[in-house]
Write a structure and sequence with these properties.
With 102 residues, this protein is mainly α. Helices cover 64% and strands 0% of the residues. Helix 3 packs antiparallel against helix 4 and helix 4 runs antiparallel to helix 5. The chain starts with 14 loop residues before the first helix and ends in a 6-residue tail after the last helix.
């Protein structure tokens, strides 16, 4: 059974639902880094790498130094045979946070 965006019991106000409502309405909303990581992770677990990459880009627009989002983006590139782009993003993440165990 695929997990729905609001399975966390938050009455439909999960970060994924908030993000999808923002996309539908065309409005702009703020998401903290942890929310963006949750959104990207949801799309990756749902096997929706295009949406995960779009969420990474959105999150990095709001948080340009978020190394974990860069790592997610690198993984998406690597899984989609874009190794050059993946390595470039990973190198930037390592420059920003060289102690990150990921």
């Amino acid at each position: 059974m695929q997990e729905s965006p609001d399975d966390n019991g938050s009455l439909g106000f999960s970060p994924v639902n908030k993000y999808e409502q923002m996309l539908i309405s065309g409005s702009q909303m703020y998401f903290n880094v942890e929310e963006m990581e949750e959104i990207v992770d949801f799309y990756l677990e749902s096997d929706e790498s295009k949406k995960a990459l779009e969420a990474c880009d959105f999150g990095l627009n709001q948080h340009p130094t978020a190394a974990n989002l860069m790592i997610y983006k690198s993984e998406i590139f690597l899984e989609n045979d874009k190794s050059k782009e993946g390595i470039e993003v990973l190198q930037k993440a390592l420059e920003l946070n060289p102690c990150n165990p990921e």
